[in-house]
Amino acid sequence: MVLITLTVLASAGFLIYAVIEPDGAVWNTLLGGCFITKTSSSKIEMSFAFACEFLLAVLMLIGIWLRKGSGRLWQLIYHQGLTWFFIALTFYVPVVVLKGLNLSDAMNMMLDVPLCLAMSICATRMHRGLYEYTHPDEAIRRYRGKYDSVAHSIADTNSVKATPIVEAV
User: Which parts pass through the membrane (predicted)?
Assistant: First the structure.
């Protein structure tokens, strides 16, 4: 547990340092915009973040394997762990390789947004899976009304009312 806590704190520290590093961005008056400089300096932080994700996924899978059970929760966490492992591997490796090659600033930053989106979607899906496991009668589903879309639990089906977003004239 201490190893996991130290890993998460060190990863957060490296990523915060990469954001607040001085002279990391400059204002270009000619183009009227802020531009990131020194994109290659974040390769250490990104490599460390990748190593942390990999270490946490491996530790989680080992822990689950050593304490495996026969229930649905064990299977759910095991499959979520494998999914997290492969998504982290799929999205982190190209980012770390491009930052290591340091081809250009655009190439260094190109895959950062897809990485953040993939990890956010993965974490959200894992959280929803655990919520649906603990609250099987309140599984989240989508309700599409005539005018808008509302997420609600099954128990609240009668209380959902569609309201128009823009009033018709």
Answer: 48-66, 73-94
User: Which amino acid is it at 92?
Assistant: Y
Given a cut of 60, is residue 139 above it in pLDDT?
A: no
How would DSSP label each residue in 57-116? HHHHHHHHHHT--SSHHHHHHHHHHHHHHHHHHHHHHHHHHHHHHT--HHHHHTTHHHHH
pTM: 0.61
Which residues does 32 contact at the CB level (< 8 Å), separation at least 6? none
**Other beta carbons less than 10 A from residue 3's beta carbon:** 10
Domain ranges of the chain: 2-19+39-137
Q: Residue 39 class from Cβ within 10 Å (0-12 exposed, 13-18 middle, 19+ buried)?
A: buried
Instruction: Determine the pLDDT at residue 90.
Output: 92
- Residues 150 and 159: beta-carbon distance below 8 Å: no
Q: How far apart are CA 151 and CA 127, in angstroms?
A: 16
Strand partners, 143: 150
